[in-house]
Design brief:
This protein has eleven helices and 19 strands. The protein is of the alpha/beta class. The strands form four sheets. It has a seven-stranded mixed β-sheet with strand order 11-10-12-13-14-18-19, with helices on both faces. A six-stranded mixed β-sheet has the order 2-6-3-7-8-9, sandwiched between helices. A four-stranded mixed β-sheet has the order 1-15-16-17, covered by helices on one side. Helix 7 links the parallel strand 12 and strand 13. It is elongated, with a radius of gyration of 21 Å.
């Protein structure tokens, strides 16, 4: 399959990186085979040079996540054709210093665009160097504080998940929500986003209960004591911790037959979908079709399952190649990258905002019988 970009008019009006759409995590990713010369790799022979900065190695050795993302980039190049860009793959060794050095080397080799890194601290270090050279960055961190003008995040941001699920819950008549959240950074961001989203939709935040790992029961009891004062509970918890949280919900008589349970895309995981207390729960997530198709093509090429974030590398490389093919000298300008019509990739539609954040087309799904059912489809355009 050849990835293509569809653009209309003299200016970039819409770009469709065909190939996918997204969503489920599927089986646990198996370690990918190592890429040849993974630490310093070049893909393609095009005239436009683009750098891809990945955590190919870490202190303990090879990083399966980094190598899977590198393989996804190779898949994107093979489908887009190798004549538009030369992709220079560089290892940041999962450190800020490594990211800084990788971007310095890429600048010296004439890179026009920096893709990556993955981790927030590495993104900040890379951005310092890239901004000094006037090069835009499309990075993969989920930490919105790493974004800025010219440093765009392609990742799935918790703020986007929260905004989508609150908007849907409000559209379904939900008026009062309680928050059951762990004491960690992800939940800090999610809780703040929930308060902002609820205020915009005149939804009351009746109670915010925070708990330490393994101690959700007392907080769930406090929420249960609210009784009919709430019609929804928002739980921004990781999949690995949800079995314990589900036990706390069950012990306190809380389930979606009585009060609507809401979550984020972290719940798109078999460990969550199988929990009895979560049947009927709603959460925002990309739709499944695109990732399923991407994973099948990746598996056929590399003989292993991709990590979930591999589509970020795939989409960003596909986009870089498509813009090089169609947009001439303005290919990586702020005007082009922040075109309000956005782009359509493996994980659905997305667009970059001028502050470096993004908007993505997300679906709302309901957990039923250990699987998900789409109850509000992801938009096909923004």
């Amino acid at each position: 399959m050849r990835a293509a970009i569809l653009c209309g008019g003299a200016a970039l009006s819409a770009c469709s990186i065909t190939g996918l759409g997204l969503g489920h995590r599927g089986p646990a990713a198996t370690p990918p085979p190592p890429a040849a010369d993974a630490a310093a790799d070049t893909l393609g022979t095009g005239p436009v040079k683009v750098a891809l900065i990945l955590p190919l190695t870490q202190a303990s050795g090879q990083s399966p996540v980094g190598v899977s993302m590198r393989n996804a980039a190779e898949l994107a190049m093979s489908e887009a054709g190798a004549n538009d860009i030369t992709l220079m793959v560089k290892d940041d060794h999962s450190t800020p210093d490594g990211a800084r050095e990788a971007v310095q080397a890429a600048n010296g080799q004439g890179a026009e665009l920096i893709l990556g890194p993955l981790f927030a601290g590495d993104v900040r270090a890379a951005a310092e160097v890239a901004k000094g050279a006037g090069k835009p960055v499309i990075a993969y961190s989920t930490d919105l504080s790493a974004a800025s003008r010219g440093v765009y995040l392609l990742s799935f941001l918790v703020e986007g998940y929260v905004d989508r699920i609150v908007d849907y819950a409000a559209s379904q008549g939900k008026k009062s929500v309680a928050v059951l959240a762990p004491e960690n950074d992800y939940a800090n961001v999610a809780t703040g986003a929930l308060q902002q989203a609820a205020a915009k939709r005149d939804m009351r935040v009746a109670l915010i209960e925070r708990y330490k790992p393994g101690a959700a029961a007392a907080s769930a009891a406090n929420i249960a004591a609210l009784g009919g004062q709430i019609d929804a509970i928002f739980i921004p918890e990781q999949a690995s911790a949800m079995p314990e949280v589900a036990r706390a919900l069950t012990a306190n008589g809380l389930d979606s037959r009585k009060v609507q349970i809401l979550g984020t895309g972290l719940w798109n995981d078999a460990r969550v979908l199988s929990l009895p207390a979560l049947q009927g729960a709603w959460f925002a997530t990309p739709e499944n079709a695109g990732f399923t198709a991407f994973a099948a093509r990746y598996r056929a090429k590399f003989g292993s399952d991709p990590t979930r974030v591999a589509t970020l590398a795939y989409d960003s490389v596909s986009l870089a190649a498509a813009l090089a093919r169609t947009q001439g000298a303005r290919r990586y300008s702020e005007e082009t990258l922040t075109n309000p019509t956005g782009f359509n990739g493996a994980d659905g539609v997305f667009r970059f905002k001028s502050d470096g954040s993004n908007e993505r087309g997300l679906a709302v799904v309901q957990i039923n019988n250990g699987a998900t059912t789409v109850i509000s489809p992801a938009p096909r355009s923004l």
